[in-house]
Amino acid sequence: YGLSQFGDNLNEICALVDKEGFQLHFHAVGDKAVTRALDAIQYARERNGMNDNRHEVFQSLEGQLNSLAST
To answer: What is the pTM of this model?
Structure first.
């Protein structure tokens, strides 16, 4: 179900992007995708520590873009 653009490398990619100071913005469709995005953000935080990046996860529901999480 669904298609990941990054395969099994999502956590590592997110940690690298976070470390360079970029904010992560996910557009996730479905519970599994949202969970995977939140897990990747948590992994980046645990690996790099807290910083001023404000990562976001959005999920499209019935044609509307709703913010589900902002860390």
So the answer is: 0.77
